Amino acid sequence: MKLYKISLLTLGVALCMTACNDMDEQIYEGGTLDTDQVNKTVATIPERVDATFSGMYNMMGDGGSGRVFTNSSRADDFAFVMAAISLSLEGGDAFGSDNGYNWFSVASELSNRNPDYANPYIRYKVPYNQLGMANDVINQIGEDATDQAAIYKVAQAKALRAFDYMALAPYFQGSYETSKDLPCIPVLTSGVDYANNPRATVAEVYKVIMEDLDWAVEHLQGYQRANKTLVDLNVAYGLRARANLYMGNWAAAAADAQKAMEGYTPASREEVSTPAFCDLNDHNWMWGILITEDQASTYGYRTAASWTSAFTHNGYGPATRNTPMINNILYKKIAATDVRKGWWLDANCESPNLEGVAWIEDGVVKAIGNDIAMYVDDSGDKDILLPYTNVKFGMKSGIGSTINANDWPLMRVEEMILIQAEGLLKSGNEAQAKTVLENFVKTYRDPAYYAAFGGRSLADEIWFQRRIELWMEGFSIVDCRRLNKPIVRFHAGDDDSNIPDAFKFNVKAEDQWLNMRFPTTETDTNAGIVNNEGGSQPESGENGELRDGVTD
């Protein structure tokens, strides 16, 4: 596979030269535009600023953002949604089939530390492209702008820039606690030499993140967004809560989470007792990626619905038995009284959450309830669902629809509640943390819940709740890394594991293989990059003795 020899950091700046609708089509192979050229062009054509601002957001779920290195569209190429799926499948709680059709097998087998693979290339490229566009918005408008609308744009660009750094930093080095003085990722500062831009330390990267989020929080006061695809004050607080959580600033994380969730309530037990998590307008979503029917038609398989929902009649997952499944060592720990137990099929391919659900094609009911799992159509677009397949993600356009217009959650109020609980606990407020956790779970998920029932420490109990509630939403690896926890997929001697043999291994928390590698196209053009080394790709059956405190 050809990777163009152009620095991704430079490309992030160059992309602002095109309008938002075709921003990923123009390739500057063999030459780049410097910042002065960019500035002159934007100054000459003021509309470019607005185009760049819109483009910053439009690329979030773009099904084709990686086309810089290929003339054809890849089925796993859809920006930040693809990254969230990859990060989930790298962890211990989710997997697809090992059947030759799984584009995300490189994530499950952790072979994607290869610097020449497309999966890590896309995941590196997309944040830096958005980050470069955010820089252009900030530089062109200026932090000293007096027009309120312009100030809001700068604040949003800064928040997105922080989001981009957080989409990279936790995966190129260990946790802030253990590795803050170690090299992480390059920072795009003004006047940087893109041909020689060394890696900043973890602490230096998070300093930039916090400065951006502090500015965004201060300057988004009073902003009323048009829709939930945009960053507002709540989202800025939420991003800062995440950053503080990753840094171990526990009290600050809890305080920011409390601010972020103002005006939001979790989804009720009734609302999540049926396939859901596909609509940006749901009241518990704070921020997300909107996919229109036109985009879904254009993107095809390159959508969240195609890969995460068991209910699309035009999806890659249901056609190839690759809709994500839950690891049964985690599934077994979920109480029978918890509505979330029904987010997955059981060993018999049944779920109470399918009761009354109908698979409909062209107005004709083809299967109802648990029969949906075994329904196979004549076209090959719907195969049987395997045990433990998720039914968490529904279809915005209807069960059995061919329109893959599912939206994707970037932030939900439930995440903020769990950040608040963890922040309170680790800042010395155990009783209050326990109350926050129990109130959430008892009220919205499991009326029989008490935090001590699982026999885990309260810290591990909060992590357990994150692993259930935020399953497949992209938090698996970052949680393992910041908590210094091993990736545990199986227990030695347990013959009941549902993990395919190729993915059946555990990884120690300190294993250097967990650090992502910089793509070859970056190390070839940025002389300042010294790539990560150490560790080796895990092999089936490795480290079966490891335990994580949750699935023990």
Keywords:
globular, 552 residues, 6 strands, disordered N terminus, mainly alpha, two-stranded antiparallel ribbon
Helix-strand string: HHHHEHHHHHHHHEHHHEHEEHEHHHHH
Largest sheet, if any?
Answer: 2 strands, antiparallel
End-to-end C-alpha gap? 42 Å
Shape: globular
Strand order of the largest sheet: 1-3
Question: Any low-confidence stretches, pLDDT <50, length ≥5?
Answer: 1-8, 10-33
The tally of strands reads 6
Binned strand content: under 5%
What structural class do you assign from the helix and strand content? mainly alpha
Number of helices: 22
Characterise the protein shown here.
- This protein has 552 residues and is mostly helical.
- Helices cover 40% and strands 4% of the residues.
- It contains 22 helices and 6 strands.
- It has helices spanning 8-14, 35-44, 47-58, 79-90, 105-108, 118-141, 148-166, 169-172, 176-179, 202-219, 233-247, 250-260, 293-299, 304-308, 316-320, 328-331, 371-374, 413-426, 430-444, 458-469, 476-482, 520-525; strands at 94-95, 285-289, 325-326, 358-361, 364-368, 408-412.
- The strands form 3 sheets. It has a two-stranded antiparallel ribbon. Strands 2-6 form a two-stranded antiparallel ribbon. A two-stranded antiparallel ribbon has the order 4-5.
Secondary-structure blueprint:
Layout: H1 8-14, H2 35-44, H3 47-58, H4 79-90, E1 94-95, H5 105-108, H6 118-141, H7 148-166, H8 169-172, H9 176-179, H10 202-219, H11 233-247, H12 250-260, E2 285-289, H13 293-299, H14 304-308, H15 316-320, E3 325-326, H16 328-331, E4 358-361, E5 364-368, H17 371-374, E6 408-412, H18 413-426, H19 430-444, H20 458-469, H21 476-482, H22 520-525
Antiparallel strand pairs: 1-3, 2-6, 4-5
Helix pairs in contact: 1-6, 3-6, 4-6, 6-7, 7-10, 10-11, 11-12, 11-18, 12-18, 18-19, 18-20
